[in-house]
Automatic annotation (TrEMBL):
Domain Amidohydrolase-related: 8-350
GO MF terms held by the record: hydrolase activity
The organism's place on the tree of life at top rank: Bacteria
Organism (species): Ketobacter alkanivorans
Family the UniProt entry places it in: Belongs to the metallo-dependent hydrolases superfamily.
Matches recorded under InterPro entries: Amidohydro-rel (IPR006680), Metal_Hydrolase (IPR032466), Metallo-dep_Lactonases (IPR052350)
Name of the featured protein: Amidohydrolase-related domain-containing protein
PANTHER family (alphabetical): AMIDOHYDROLASE, BLL3371 PROTEIN
Length: 355
């Protein structure tokens, strides 16, 4: 794994449970003095759907800050990261802007720099324009918006959107239209069976760059997850449904894809249950074809490798992940590899551009 250029990791999350508003802030404040009791309480208090989705709660039950990411990235030439909103709990009024303001100073003394901020905006709100303006004022690195659309009717799967088909809501679309005039991208996270929503959005708003997070998350394509992927036939249907939608998205030039998130438990590999991480060979055999499919049809100009750490950390280390990425791209010319690991993220998120 040799890199002759710096890496931009365009999808990580950071949180400080004691000092910022998170879902685990109060449990951490009450019980964090005793790690064993605290983690036991998290296990008892979390729903089965939440525990299944996360894999092992301890991976989100503790702070994840620049120093933690730097340790994970040791030996990798990561120069910049892009932070994607991480469910900051204060979403009343201008509350979500607090995350952007917090991030603006978080990397001040870090070797790895903050290249961009993709913040949360509830686009259906009547004051969405004011919230966007406040984000931009809070940080010059604010470059995009994410409001998660991932929703499944299966109650055994975590829901990240309050209802299905939010993207069809007229008020929500009015908010989305604000992004073009503000030169902001939209990070779209949906499950595989929802990707027709993104096809419709990208066609309706050709002036907005849509970044598909985590390759459209094909639930259960690697093995059973809740009601998905119980049989080989079911997994084949999932794969073909995902491929169909991805081919439709590949026809739309304003859609780019983050090659990421494929080692979250929801994909169904089961790596989170192992004491020993999967080998490079196993990663290439199982997940490799999904990445190769996306690279083939979207091309190297519309894809970017990203970590989704610490969420994928439950399955493998950051170094193992980037070794896998490096293996996928080893046959590509240097110029193409640089696009996948650096240039495309820099272009989409304006990393290093004075604003």
């Amino acid at each position: 794994m040799n890199f002759s250029f710096p890496i931009i990791d365009p999808h990580i999350h950071q949180w400080d449970l004691l000092n910022t508003p998170r879902i685990l802030t109060w449990p951490k404040r009450l019980l964090g003095w005793n790690r064993r009791i605290y983690e036991a309480a998290i296990h008892l208090g979390a729903s089965e759907a939440d525990k299944r989705y996360i894999g092992r709660p301890e991976f989100v039950a503790h702070n994840y800050l620049p120093g933690d990411y730097r340790k994970d990235a040791e030996g990798l030439p990561v120069s910049h990261i892009v932070h994607v909103e991480a469910e900051w709990r204060d979403r009343s009024g201008m509350g979500a802007v607090g995350e952007t303001r917090w991030l603006a100073g978080l990397f001040e003394h870090s070797v790895i720099q903050l290249g961009g901020v993709v913040g949360y905006v509830q686009l259906q709100r009547s004051d969405a324009a004011q919230v966007i303006a406040a984000h931009k004022q809070a940080s010059e690195r604010f470059c995009g918006v994410r409001q998660m659309l991932a929703f499944d009717q299966d109650e055994g799967i975590m829901r990240f959107c309050p209802r299905p088909y939010l993207s069809k809501d007229e008020s929500w679309r009015r908010g989305l239209s604000l992004l073009e005039q503000n030169q902001l991208s939209f990070d779209a996270w949906l499950f595989h069976h929802q990707l027709d929503e993104l096809v419709a959005l990208a066609k309706s708003y050709p002036g907005i760059t849509f970044v598909l997070d985590h390759m459209g998350t094909p639930i259960g394509v690697g093995g059973q997850f809740s009601s998905y992927g119980r049989t080989a036939e079911a997994r084949h249907v999932i794969l073909k449904t995902w491929e169909m939608h991805m081919l439709a998205l590949a026809e739309l030039p304003n859609v780019v894809v983050k090659l990421s998130g494929m080692f979250m438990p929801v994909v169904g590999w089961g790596f989170e249950h192992r004491d020993v991480p999967p080998s490079q060979q196993e990663l290439l055999e199982k997940a490799g074809p999904l990445f190769e499919f996306v690279l083939k049809y979207f091309g190297v100009d519309r894809c970017m490798f990203a970590s989704n750490f610490p969420m994928d950390k439950v399955s493998l280390t950051l170094r193992q992940l980037y070794e896998f990425y490096s293996s996928l791209a080893e046959s590509y010319p240097e110029e193409s590899r640089k696009k996948l690991f650096h240039d495309n993220a820099a272009r989409v998120y304006r990393v290093g551009v004075s604003v």
